[in-house]
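User: Sequence for Cysteine protease below. Tokens please.
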Amino acid sequence: MNSAALSLAASMFEGSGSDSDSLADTETVLYILGIEYKTPHDTYAILDDVVSRFWFTYRTGFAPIGGPSGPTRDTGWGCMMRCGQMMLAESYIRFFLPAGRYFRWRPNISDSVYWEILNMFIDKRHSSYSIHQIVQMGNSEGKEIGQWFGPNTIAQVLRRIASNEFDRQINVHVAMDNTLVLDEIRKLCQINSKVRKTTKKSNDTSSGWKPLVIIIPLRLGLTNVNIEYIDQLKLCFRLPQTLGCIGGKPNHAHYFIGYLETDELLYLDPHVTQQHVDTTVTADDISYHCDRINRMKFSGLDPSLALAFACKTEIEFDDLIAKLKQNLPSKPMFEICQSNPFDVHNQQPHHHGVLTLDSDDDFEVV
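Assistant: Structure tokens for Cysteine protease:
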């Protein structure tokens, strides 16, 4: 490792409050999106992993949202949208880059698929998951332009946007009522894949399964996370299918990607305002990656959050469910059911396919 990398690695961890001790000088175990590391031995590998994640932050100078007089910056209200972008972009890396979870970024990388994924999220009106598309989707369902989203809202909006016929198709399933309904998920992936086998845009695997993102909005307490759920959150961060979780108080959302055995969460922070950079016209992606990771105590986590998992194949989905069933305790954060327990007449649940954007504070407390 060269001297510049050593210096950067030594300062990459930002502690919360007055806790600014460098993890490069300590011995501990940590997990980042399903991969285990140990410090100080793995410090450079940790840095390489963190900087390879997409980092979407507040931006200024993009085209107005919603018309000529619309906002050209999202500082103060777009943080949860940025966290949702980071989480979903991570799934696209898993699904469509050959290295998947082990992709490692280098400045101005030449991989055309990488650039295609990044350009789906930049702040242009017609980019698939741009701030413009997210805000406009929310606005069409009653959210004011410039209004903060909670974790349930961004999950539902991303689900709706992902249902469009993009060149690189995925399914986004948002679990409701703290329940994963396996039959619904299989039907979603398998039926859609059968339809798309006749199209040229099909990117389904040989097993007939379209890549799947599962998002589970939860409220794990009233004002603070119930401590009995912390070990379950840690379990989720250790699973290879994890996409981490998004959460936070209004105007203060984070993308949580792992944890330390010292009971600290690791997260990427979108609360940095950067100038809009159009990567469709300039190969400048430096500002879309971050060389620092932040940490905070589990006790500081807001109870309103959304977990997410990525399953490229049906085998990965089956493995995820098996691990969850095997390791979640008798009082889990969410339930896993074969069929919809609320659907006694074998009808589609009345709200699973409906975008409801005013329910971020209406979760059942588990």
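The radius of gyration is 20 Å.
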